[in-house]
Write a structure and sequence with these properties.
Biliverdin-producing heme oxygenase, about 220 residues, mainly alpha, Haem_Oase-like, iron, heme, binds protoporphyrin IX containing FE
């Protein structure tokens, strides 16, 4: 049987392609959107990571999610820097979650409160993605909107506490392979992972509607 890290990766492959090729992501990576669209997207991430990271320390003792909790991953401080840069000193008052973002954050909170294994599905979907495709987004954002390399505006994509992302991802996959869950629970984690991707895609869809190309 395939290892769990292979299973979760394979099972979410189709959903990944869908997220990656969504109109909003394609337009963003194609350099066709203004910085306001990028700021609006970053703003949505704030609500998602607030749900992922507020009280995440409580999960540190959990047998399933605990081994994955790592302060080097925390993105909220970086998002605060980026949003301050994008929106100015009063940035906090400018933030508003789209309904799709609200639904995504609510599901993350629900898992964090009641189902640590489900939380792990969300943890994997975001952080491993940020360490992978996130680097492509950073490069594009720097070039399109002129942010300093790894500077304010793209701090979200910079993991100062992770020296070697490839090694980190290898270790993360090893943790997945040794996760303290039986086969049925692993299946449920995979299902939740697909749901996590779908929640991301829904946010992209809303953003796409808010920032249509006036071609
Ligand atoms: C345009 C946007 C995206 C691009 C270009 C992209 C690209 C990539 C690439 C190249 C990898 C492989 C890295 C490796 O093998 O180490 C990857 C992995 C991954 N991506 Fe994305 N991605 C994008 C969007 C997303 C989104 C929206 C999510 C979910 C929110 C996501 C979640 C993941 C995850 C979880 C992995 C790790 C798969 C694994 O090895 O288990 N990605 N991405």
């Amino acid at each position: 049987m395939d290892s769990f890290s292979t299973l979760i990766r394979t099972a979410s492959h189709e959903a990944h392609v869908e997220a990656e090729t969504s109109t909003f992501m394609s337009d963003l990576l194609g350099g066709r959107l203004g910085v306001a669209a990028y700021a609006r997207y970053t703003e949505q991430l704030w609500f998602v990571y607030e749900a992922l990271e507020t009280h995440a320390d409580r999960l540190a003792a959990d047998p399933v999610a605990g081994p994955f909790i790592n302060p080097a991953l925390l993105r909220l401080p970086a998002l605060a820097q980026d949003l301050e840069h994008l929106r100015g000193p009063g940035w906090r008052a400018t933030l508003s979650a789209l309904p799709a973002t609200e639904a995504y954050a609510a599901r993350v909170r629900e898992c964090a409160d009641r189902w640590p294994a489900g939380y792990l599905a969300h943890h994997y979907t975001r952080y491993l993605g940020d360490l992978s495709g996130g680097q492509i987004i950073r490069d594009k954002a720097e070039k399109t909107w002129g942010f300093d390399r790894k500077g304010k505006g793209v701090r979200f994509y910079v993991f100062d506490g992770i020296g070697n992302p490839a090694a980190f991802k290898r270790d993360y996959r090893h943790l997945l392979d040794t996760v303290d869950a039986d086969d049925l629970e692993k299946q449920r984690i995979v299902t939740e992972c697909k749901r996590a991707f779908a929640l991301n895609t829904a946010v992209f869809r809303s953003l796409g509607e808010e920032f249509p190309l006036s071609a």
